[in-house]
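Q: what sequence does this backbone want?
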């Protein structure tokens, strides 16, 4: 088991910034790729960003490049998602995910967090 817990969501205005955190207990997290997904009403959950276990490589969906940054603190078993210049669009739930495969984590991760809600008003 690799339980993941997200934090940092909330209600903000368009243009604001938020920093999400995903934390897990145990050193197992040091050897997995971690990723962030988001889901809005009426749409499927979509990939946002991923970071390798050693933080040497990152990957982003095109819509967030230049605005979002994923990072990791290996010692604290925590991945972060810095979100700048948030766009209006109502509520979305952001989920943390992890998998031993850097490819599988983007499509069907082995581990999921419970999610944290972000609401961006205009």
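A:
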């Amino acid at each position: 088991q690799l339980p993941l817990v997200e934090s940092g969501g909330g209600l903000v205005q368009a243009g604001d910034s938020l920093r999400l955190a995903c934390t897990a207990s145990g050193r197992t997290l040091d050897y997995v790729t971690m990723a962030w997904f988001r889901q809005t009403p009426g749409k499927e959950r979509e990939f946002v960003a991923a970071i390798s276990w050693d933080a040497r490589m990152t990957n982003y969906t095109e819509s967030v490049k230049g605005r979002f940054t994923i990072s990791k603190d290996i010692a604290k078993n925590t991945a972060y998602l810095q979100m700048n210049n948030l766009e209006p669009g109502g509520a979305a739930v952001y989920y943390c995910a992890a998998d031993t495969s850097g490819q599988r984590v983007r499509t069907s991760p082995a581990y999921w967090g419970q999610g944290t809600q972000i609401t961006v008003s205009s």
